[in-house]
Design goal:
The chain is an alpha/beta fold and 272 residues long. The protein contains eight helices and nine strands. The structure holds iron/sulfur cluster (SF4).
């Protein structure tokens, strides 16, 4: 399957703070500075935008922009997002973070299913004219949600991809973006911190637990072009091909033209 990977953005958080070198030219922070006059400069969750997908009947793929797992966003607020996702099975959602450890911890909470159930009920009762689906506990992990981590080089891949693999999810994806150095997933496998040879991920290829890898170069006024990008993208493409994982090249650095052999736009094979 090929095509665009999302239909609409769903921006629930404004503001962010940098966590690694990939954040240096972040458009979300630049946008916040531009809008600073009307805001208090803090990271904020926008409750008023929560119900938007519930009102939309047409099947839509949403990309959740900005980092929902920022430390200033409360678990209760994330629960409400999960409540909306659970109550709108007609849509698909991509949720991307650089805060992979927090995401892992959030989904590991044993009370999460009940908390999300309560949030879904609360949203439906408090929504005005929205038609809500009945939340079903057996639809867990949420089958219309793909959880992803954003990495920019080998070091960030080694750290964040492991957390992603240990996060309970129906679908997982990796976004290498902005790509600032090569990423070899065999090295990520070797970097697995778990010494337990019985652990399910011990000595297993990383990409076996992933449903999509996306890659993009940096764009914008201060974008860093990296001469090795093309070959690094070919290497990731080949790693994906070897393991049967879809690969999607979003854009070249500084929006250069995409070479023919890298015009690949595969995406997740969502289940029924
Ligand atoms: S984590 Fe994401 S949204 Fe936040 S500053 Fe970094 S790139 Fe921007």
């Amino acid at each position: 399957m090929t095509g665009k990977w999302w239909d609409q953005g769903w921006t629930l958080v404004s503001g962010c703070t940098a966590v690694s070198v990939g954040c240096d030219n972040c458009w979300a922070m630049a946008m916040e500075k531009r809008l600073m006059k009307g805001s208090n400069g803090c990271v904020q969750f926008h409750n008023d935008r929560l119900a938007r997908p519930l009102r939309r009947k047409k099947s839509t793929t949403y990309a959740i922009w900005n980092d929902l797992f920022h430390e200033d966003i409360a678990d209760l607020e994330i629960d409400r997002v999960m409540g909306v996702i659970s109550a709108s099975p007609q849509h698909k959602y991509f949720l991307l973070t650089k805060r992979a450890k927090r995401m892992q911890g959030y989904f590991a909470n044993r009370e999460l299913v009940d908390r999300v159930s309560r949030s879904a009920g609360w949203l439906c009762q408090n929504g005005d004219d929205v038609a809500c689906n009945v939340y079903q506990k057996d639809r867990w992990p949420l089958p219309n949600l793909a959880l992803g981590v954003s990495v920019e080089n080998q070091e960030t891949a080694d750290n964040r991809v492991w957390a992603l693999l240990q996060t309970q999810a129906a679908y997982r994806f990796i976004n290498i973006g902005p790509a600032l150095g090569p990423v070899d997933f065999c090295k990520t496998s070797e970097a697995f911190p778990h010494q337990d040879t019985q652990h399910p991920w011990h000595n297993r290829p990383i990409l076996g637990g992933v449903d999509l890898v996306m890659m993009e170069g940096e764009s914008g006024r201060h974008a860093r072009d990296w001469p090795g990008f093309d070959n690094a993208a070919r290497s990731v493409r080949d790693q994906c091909k070897a393991t049967g994982v879809p690969f999607f090249l979003k854009q070249m650095p500084k929006k250069r033209l995409i070479p023919e052999d890298l015009k690949i736009r595969e995406t997740i094979q969502w289940g029924p």
